[in-house]
């Protein structure tokens, strides 16, 4: 018995090929050979499938199976239909936003821009010390989970080295302890040694050449080892409140999903497009709020069912029926 397929294909049924997949409904493993329902979720580069026990799917999916003559989705039935796809009609699309509108919405929703304390009390926020800590933290977070970086700087680094002067005089044995702590907090294991020395060299540079202040020039920032375009953009936005847009994996992925930029667009192209659409005072905040959206629901595999923008997002409009599964 075959089932039609096409561009709107979403659900598919098959026998579990191994016992490693976990049901998104009950969170338990799906035993090898048992029937399962898969929901294909397109990502930036490839599609991820969310798997469910047939009994864990919600009423809409059960009714869909019945409409296709699959009231009993047992092992024999699944073998008969193979891995054909069950068509699901897309839900109505309510229309998208301009990039400027999305910026305003996300900036109202998320408030982390310039709001990390980095272990400092209220009366030291936005001081020279806060600026330095923001810069060092931005260097450390590249290719690293943000929550791990924040724990590392607040529980260790800025406890032991509370100001630039103390980190600048760190010696080889100090670096070994920094690297040990980086490993403990899972700071990019492939780049621990480089990052440890880079934050020290950058701090020395700031003290020797900029009187302890973070330079407000991208050119000067990028002359420091370990500082690329992303770090310099975020630093200029956070420390100097300049209209610079940091592009990381969350940012580029979400902008692609909304159709604002082409897949694989260079950072400079993305920045140019954003600056043409978003108010200057919102640009840094917009970049940060995209990171927050990516960390909360719009990750590598988007959780469109829990996203407050799902009915307006060009990707979410094709995935809003996820919420009917679990």
Could you walk me through the main structural features you see in this protein, from its secondary elements to its overall organization?
- The protein is of the alpha+beta class and 326 residues long.
- The protein folds into 2 domains: 9-87, Zinc finger, PARP-type (first zn-finger domain of poly(adp-ribose) polymerase-1, 2-Layer Sandwich), CATH 3.30.1740.10; 99-296, Endonuclease III, domain 1.
- Helix content is 44%, strand content 8%.
- It is built from 13 helices and 4 strands.
- It has helices spanning 59-67, 75-81, 99-109, 128-141, 146-160, 164-168, 172-184, 192-209, 218-222, 229-240, 249-257, 267-277, 283-296, and strands spanning 9-15, 35-42, 47-53, 85-87.
- Strands 3-2-1-4 form a 4-stranded antiparallel sheet.
- A hairpin with a 4-residue loop joins strand 2 and strand 3 (47-53).
- The radius of gyration is 24 Å and the shape is globular.
Structure, briefly:
This protein has two domains: 9-87, Zinc finger, PARP-type (first zn-finger domain of poly(adp-ribose) polymerase-1, 2-Layer Sandwich), CATH 3.30.1740.10; 99-296, Orthogonal Bundle (Endonuclease III, domain 1), CATH 1.10.340.30. It has 13 helices and four strands. It has helices at 59-67, 75-81, 99-109, 128-141, 146-160, 164-168, 172-184, 192-209, 218-222, 229-240, 249-257, 267-277, 283-296, and strands spanning 9-15, 35-42, 47-53, 85-87.
């Amino acid at each position: 018995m075959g089932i039609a397929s096409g561009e709107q294909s979403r659900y598919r049924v098959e026998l579990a090929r191994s016992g490693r997949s976990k049901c998104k409904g009950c969170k338990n493993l799906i035993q090898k050979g048992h029937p399962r329902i898969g929901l294909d979720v397109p990502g930036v580069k490839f599609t991820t499938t969310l798997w469910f026990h047939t009994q864990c799917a919600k009423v809409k999916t059960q009714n869909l199976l019945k409409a296709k003559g699959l009231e009993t989705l047992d092992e024999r039935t699944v073998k008969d239909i193979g891995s054909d796809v069950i068509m699901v009609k897309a839900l109505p699309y309510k229309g998208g936003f301009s990039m400027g509108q999305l910026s305003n919405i996300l900036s109202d929703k998320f408030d982390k821009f310039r709001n990390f304390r980095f272990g400092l009390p209220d009366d030291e926020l936005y001081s020279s010390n806060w600026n330095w800590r923001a810069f060092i933290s931005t260097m450390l977070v590249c290719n690293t989970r943000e929550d791990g970086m924040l724990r590392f700087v607040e529980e260790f680094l800025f406890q032991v080295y509370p100001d630039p002067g103390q980190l600048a005089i760190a010696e080889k044995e100090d670096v070994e302890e920094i690297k040990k702590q980086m490993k403990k907090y899972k700071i990019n294991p492939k780049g621990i040694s480089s990052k440890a020395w880079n934050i020290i060299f950058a701090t020395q540079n700031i003290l020797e050449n900029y009187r302890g202040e973070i330079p407000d020039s991208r050119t000067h920032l990028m002359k420091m080892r370990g500082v690329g375009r992303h770090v310099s953009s975020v630093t200029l936005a956070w420390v100097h409140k300049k209209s610079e847009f940091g592009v990381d994996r969350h940012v580029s992925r979400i902008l692609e999903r909304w159709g604002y930029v082409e897949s694989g667009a260079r950072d400079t192209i993305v920045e140019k497009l954003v600056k043409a659409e978003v108010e200057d005072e919102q640009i840094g905040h917009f970049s940060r709020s995209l990171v927050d959206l990516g960390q909360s629901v719009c990750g590598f595999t988007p959780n469109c069912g829990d996203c407050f923008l799902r009915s307006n997002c060009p990707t979410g409009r094709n995935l809003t029926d996820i919420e009917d599964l679990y």
